[in-house]
Amino acid sequence: MKQLLVILFVLINAQFASAKELIIISDLDETIREANIEKKAKAGLKLISGVKAYQGLKLIFNEIKAKNPEAKFYYLSNSYPFLYNGDKWTTKNGFPDGEVFQRCLKDKSDEFKPKKLKEIALAHPDAQLILFGDNIEKDPAFYREFLIETQIKDAQVFIRDARLLFTQDPEMIYFQTEAQITEALGISEATSSAVKNLAFSNLVPRYLLKNLKKRLIKECKKTATNCSEVASRRVLDVIDLLRPVAERP
C-alpha cells in the first residue's frame, strides 16, 4: 500500500509539473479599451471623458485567471504613459493583474510591441500563449510575423474585428463580439451566457458602426451611387448579424 501511495504521489506531481505555463498577452486600445483610435481626435476626447472597458473580454480574462491562478497577463500598447496609465486603468476596470508595457516618449518606431512580445516569449519558452489584438492598426501583421519568426506552435491569436470587415484567416481567429470566442477559449457556460447577455452597445460600441458607415460612404463614392443609403443598409445588416437574439425585434 505504501508503495502504491508513493507511485500515485509521483504520478500526480509529474502531471502538474508537466502542465504548461499559461501566458496571456493583450493589446490595450480597441482590444480591451473602447478607445476609438481609428479617429484620433475623438480618441483624445475619450481620454478626457473616460475610456470604457470591453466588458466581454473582462469577463473572459477573469475566468481564465480564476481557472489558472498561476497564469500571467501582459498588456502591451503603443500608447504613451503620459496619455493614460495602463496599469491604473486595467486595475480600475477590473482586469486581472499583470505587467503593462507602454511605449516611452522617445520611441517613435513601430518596433516596440513586436520587440516586447518576443522578450516575453523568450522569458517563457515552454508556455502556452494566448494573444489578443485588433485590426485597427498592425496587430495581425506583427502577430503573424512573430509566429513565423519564433515557430511557436502552442499559440492562439484572437483579433477583434473593430473595422467590422468579417475577415477570415486560418492563422488567427477574428471576432466581432466576444460571444463568438467563448467556445474556442473553453469558457464556462455561466460566463458565456453572461457575455452573450451583455447589451449590444457593450459588445459593439456605436462608434464602430459610425466609423463603418463613414468608410462605406467614402468607398461608395468611387462608384457614384446613393452612398448614404447603401452604407445605412450595410450597417443595419451588420447589426442584424451581431445583435444578441434577446435584443432582436
Please characterize this protein's 3D structure:
This protein has 249 residues and is of the alpha/beta class. The protein has 10 helices and 6 strands, in the order H-E-H-H-E-H-E-H-E-H-E-E-H-H-H-H. The chain has helices spanning 2-18, 40-49, 55-67, 86-92, 112-123, 139-150, 189-196, 200-203, 206-220, 227-242; strands spanning 22-27, 72-77, 99-102, 128-134, 155-160, 173-175. Helix 6 links the parallel strand 4 (128-134) and strand 5 (155-160).
What is Rg?
A: 21 Å
SS class: alpha/beta
Beta percentage is 5-15%
Query: How many extended strands?
Result: 6
Please state the average pLDDT score. 87
What's the short version?
The chain is α/β, with parallel strands linked by helices. Helices cover 46% and strands 13% of the residues. It has helices spanning 2-18, 40-49, 55-67, 86-92, 112-123, 139-150, 189-196, 200-203, 206-220, 227-242; strands spanning 22-27, 72-77, 99-102, 128-134, 155-160, 173-175.
